[in-house]
Structure formats: structure tokens, C-alpha cells
UniProtKB/TrEMBL annotation:
The lineage of its organism: Bacteria, Bacillati, Actinomycetota, Actinomycetes, Micrococcales. This is Cell envelope-related transcriptional attenuator domain-containing protein. InterPro entries: LytR/CpsA/Psr_CW_biosynth (IPR050922), LytR_CpsA_psr (IPR004474). Residues 108-263 form the Cell envelope-related transcriptional attenuator domain. Residues 351-425 are annotated as: Disordered.
Length: 425
């Protein structure tokens, strides 16, 4: 039995005013870039093989500018707010058939990171893969084939129509945000990144043994890495209501824990981990040409290193299921989405309503099972480094602040610890 859900206080998300994270890899792509970046900034550039990394990053780059070209920032050049898109692909040609065979490569996970103008906080938006959206005209960067605009189609069909650039254009149209930076990652990249960081603590309210993903973990807190971390991110049928939306909630738990791990003293002062993470990112992530340099990665890291965990919130793009016209799909909740992105665009403070963690997770309480195991690629062992419930800071809002509550948006802050619910809970 999982502990009863406790009422959730409204979470203030503070930003400075400014002019203008079978789904699986959901939150990990974001950190793929953030990770590589935050780490590279945490270590001396002279301590890592800069030339080697630079060559790998450049070789794997992807043009998302539509042929117009984009300026590459130099170290220290990031100023104000910005947006980064991270896309996780399913059935990437480079991953082989180890994870099953598909008819086509799909953008299975789509995450947008918005950093506020004061660079003290931000919002990470996860877009359901089956979200019904309009797709703009796109051109395949490899074949040169042009695809006409389509309407009311699942988001995860975008990659086939023009790769990363097409997904970027689709989400710019949907959100109204300009997205100058992006990255692409596959299953193998997720494994490499989690191995490099040394594992991430995750919490389960009850044991999960999922035959589809292969995940087998006990109740409590386990530190997962490698293939086990990927299994955790892919699991759907055994958690929450068994939907992709529940899986996004679970993945947001993972991402928030990963961010806390990356910002911990042990990670940012460990040169070995920093280099391994930078190397894994350079090898496994295809960055947009606008980010495809060590200078750009370090500049992004410098902008992210001081983000307040209480001011970094993970949310799911608002949508509903059960529409008879789109069975099994997610239809946008337009009014709620408009309210959310109006706040994001203008860096206005907002907060999430009570009990807004979504169908896949619940807020950790003092009754949450204590740490039980560590799992890396399926191996067991006592966990000694998993964070205990309540360790995350939950600073209250500044007296007098009254951020708008946006009802209908699910998510959590990076500072908040949540636990994945078993199926039907």
C-alpha cells in the first residue's frame, strides 16, 4: 500500500519579468544537454580533452535553422532567458534492435526547457507523444523531400517529416516560443548518460515488476543507472493508471532527482564524473549547430548552474484523454495551455494547484519506505547514497507574493521529492 496523499501546498514559481523535461526517455534528454553542460562548467576545461569533445560535438550536430544559420554563442555570451528543446527518439537507426523493432523512427519524448530572464529558475515542459497538434510544412534534411502541413496529428509523427528541425517548428507554432537550441538523443544515449552520472535515486510506493519494460524494483528508494534507469523511464503498464501521462509523472520524478544529483557537491566536484558525463553527451547527443561547440555548451552551463531548485518546475503540457474523435490520444486543453505559456513567455510567477503531481506519482511523506536497494543494470546491493524523503528544500514564497494558481497543470519542482505509484493507485 502506498501512503495516503497529503494535501499539496501551492508551489510558487518565481521568474523575473522579461520582454519576451511507449514514452521513455522523457526527462533524461533534457539533462543530457543540461548535464553535459553543467558538468563541463564545473570542471576546468584544461582538465578534459577539449579538442576531442569539440570534434565529436561538431560531427554530431544538426541544423534546425531551416538553412538561415544561427550564431554560436561564445563563453559567457548567454544573457537573459532562452529555450532548449530535447527530443528522444524511438527506434533510432544507431540503437540497433536491442529495444525491439519499429516501422519508423518517432520523436517519442519531447521536452522544452525555458530558463527565465534572471536565470534563477525555469520551466521544463513535457509534451505527450500522442498529443494532437498541427504540423507545419517541413523538409527532410537528408532526402530534401518536402512535406505539406498536416492537421490534428500525433506529435510523435513529426520526426518522420523533417527530423529535429520539424519538431522544433511544430512546437514553436504550438507554444508561441522561439526555440534556438535543441538536442537529439536515443535509448543508448540515456544509458550512457545515467552511467556517467553514477546513478539516480528513485522512489516507489510499492514494488514494481513490469514484464514489458523489464523493470523489477522493490518498494522504497533505489539508486538506478544504465539499463535499469532506462527501464524505469519506459515503464507504463505497472504504474499509475497505466497511461503515457502517468509515465511522464514518473519520469519527472527521475529528472528532478537527476537535477539534484547533478547539483550536489559530490557530482560537481568529481572531475571523473564530469568528464564521463561530458564525453557521454558529446558521443550520444546530436546538438543543434547553434549549440555544437564547447564554448556554447559551457555558456549554457554557466547560465544554468545557479538555477534555484525551488524555482525549476517540471510540468506536463495540458491535455485530456477520452475524446471519441481521437481514441487513445491526448487532446490539448487549449485554455489552460494558453494561460501556462503566457506566464512562461513573460516570466510571470505561477503556482501549481493542490495534489498536482499527476496520475503516476505522489508527494513523498514521512511514511515513505526507507531506502532498500541500489540497481545498476539489474544488480542489487544496499543503497547508501539515496536521498531520504524530505531532504529537498521547499522554501516558502516571499511574504506578500501571490502567484497565480494554474489549475489543470500537473508537475513538481526540482526540489520536491515524489514517489511513483503502483498501477491503479
Amino acid at each position: 500500500m502506498k501512503p495516503p496523499r497529503s494535501p499539496r501546498a501551492e508551489l510558487p514559481i518565481r521568474h523575473a519579468r522579461s520582454p519576451r523535461f511507449a514514452t521513455t526517455k522523457t526527462l533524461t534528454r533534457l539533462i543530457a544537454v543540461v548535464a553535459a553542460v553543467v558538468l563541463v562548467s564545473g570542471a576546468s576545461l584544461g582538465a578534459i580533452a577539449v579538442n576531442s569533445l569539440a570534434s565529436q560535438v561538431t560531427a554530431n550536430s544538426v541544423d534546425i535553422s531551416g538553412g538561415t544559420g544561427q550564431a554560436i554563442p561564445h563563453v559567457g555570451a548567454f544573457a537573459g532567458g532562452f529555450n532548449v528543446l530535447i527530443v528522444g527518439t524511438d527506434n533510432d537507426a544507431n540503437q540497433g534492435d536491442a529495444f525491439g523493432e519499429r516501422d519508423a523512427t518517432l520523436d517519442d519524448v519531447n521536452i522544452l526547457l525555458h530558463v527565465s530572464a534572471d536565470q534563477n529558475g525555469g520551466v521544463v515542459v513535457s509534451f505527450p507523444r500522442d498529443l494532437i497538434v498541427d504540423h507545419p510544412q517541413c523538409t527532410d534534411p537528408v532526402s530534401g523531400q518536402e512535406f505539406a502541413a498536416t492537421y490534428k496529428q500525433p506529435l510523435n509523427t513529426g520526426f518522420e517529416r523533417g527530423g529535429l528541425a520539424c519538431i522544433k517548428s511544430t512546437l514553436e507554432k504550438l507554444t508561441g516560443l522561439e526555440i534556438p537550441y535543441a538536442g537529439l538523443i536515443s535509448f543508448n544515449g540515456v544509458i550512457a548518460m545515467t552511467d556517467a552520472v553514477g546513478g539516480v535515486p528513485v522512489c516507489l510506493n510499492e514494488a514494481v515488476d513490469d514484464s514489458n519494460s523489464g523493470l523489477d524494483l522493490p518498494a522504497g528508494i533505489s539508486t538506478v543507472s544504465g539499463a535499469t534507469a532506462l527501464q524505469f523511464l519506459r515503464t507504463r503498464d505497472s504504474i499509475g493508471d497505466g497511461s503515457d501521462l502517468a509515465r511522464i509523472s514518473s519520469q519527472q520524478q527521475y529528472l528532478s532527482s537527476l537535477v539534484r544529483t547533478l547539483k550536489s557537491a559530490n557530482t560537481l566536484t568529481d572531475v571523473t564524473k564530469l568528464y564521463a558525463l561530458a564525453q557521454a553527451a558529446a558521443t550520444n547527443i546530436k546538438l543543434s549547430t547553434s549549440l555544437a561547440s564547447i564554448d556554447a555548451m559551457v555558456s549554457l552551463a554557466l547560465a544554468l548552474k545557479d538555477v534555484d531548485l525551488n524555482q525549476l518546475v517540471f510540468v506536463q503540457y495540458p491535455g485530456t484523454t477520452g475524446d471519441a474523435d481521437y481514441p487513445g490520444k491526448v487532446v490539448p486543453s487549449t485554455d489552460v495551455a494558453d494561460e501556462l505559456f503566457a506566464k512562461i513567455t513573460s516570466d510571470q510567477p505561477f503556482s501549481l494547484g493542490a495534489d498536482s503531481t499527476g496520475p503516476g506519482t505522489s508527494v513523498a511523506t514521512s511514511d515513505t519506505p526507507t531506502p532498500t536497494s541500489s540497481a545498476a543494470d539489474g544488480s542489487g546491493g544496499a543503497s547508501t547514497d539515496a536521498a531520504a524523503p524530505g531532504d529537498a528544500s521547499t522554501d516558502a514564497a516571499t511574504p506578500g507574493d501571490t502567484p497565480t494558481v494554474i489549475n489543470g497543470v500537473t508537475g513538481q519542482t526540482a526540489a520536491e521529492q515524489t514517489c511513483t505509484n503502483g498501477f491503479g493507485d
